[in-house]
Amino acid sequence: MFKRHKATARRRPLSFPNPSRSYDETRSGIHFWGYDRTIEIAFFIEPGALSQVNPRTKTTETCALATFDDNRDQICAVAGNIYQRRHEAHEMHSYVLSESDFSGSTTDSTSAMSRCWRRLNRKR
Question: What's this model's pTM, rounded to 2 decimal places?
């Protein structure tokens, strides 16, 4: 009965005010959330995508979370772009960030790996 009208104004960018993220041991990736006004949008970054962000990333929880934390701005920027592109075609509330979404986005930062090794050594 009701038709949805496409907004002629530019969409507001996705925001990431919630710093929470969680490691998915089964899939070796990370879940995190963004917001389009009041709608929560779920994201999952695959391990291959994390490796694109930092090629030295290991698939352990500690290393994956350290890489995510050190590159949060870059990851959220890519997530926001993907959301804007895909949301116009499909009304989805969950997105997977894959390796191809980060092609050409590697960083030279080694801080994630050094933090990862420090955390692993503390646990022993």
Answer: 0.74
